[in-house]
Amino acid sequence: xxxxxxxxxxxxxxxxxxxxxxxxxxxxxxxxxxxxxxxxxxxxxxxxxxxxxxxxxxxxxxxxxxxxxxxxxxxxxxxxxxxxxxxxxxxxxxxxxxxxxxxxxxxxxxxxxxxxxxxxxxxxxxxxxxxxxxxxxxxxxxxxxxxxxxxxxxxxxxx
Length: 159
What we know:
The chain is of the alpha+beta class and 159 residues long. It has helices at residues 3-33, 103-106, 131-134; strands at 34-38, 53-58, 67-71, 85-92, 118-122, 137-138, 142-148. 23% of the residues are buried.
């Protein structure tokens, strides 16, 4: 075997060792940026149905109208992890006027603004628990923004 043959064999062997490492790091990087969550309930109907799986980009940068996943401000306390996280749509951002129907829940006056580090969220369904009931959602409680429903590939933001 010539010197070139050894170099080619060493390169193939090196690639065989490198590929699993690169794959592992790629999967790890994706998991640090993405999450998969399952919808429980109908508060986001018709956008999302009970049992839908949602791909979520881990971020705290959101826009009005984004569907977001955040830690439940009122956990069930019964060990039911299905309700540890909620999916709602951002209705108002820091600096926006506090919506009239949310003022009582947050103790805001007419003309009040959403404070820094807080969001107003709403469910898409007519009857749902959202900021009208539990007040502001701290930006620190966000898991991220819903990107798609992997099963259908339809975009999550269609309002």
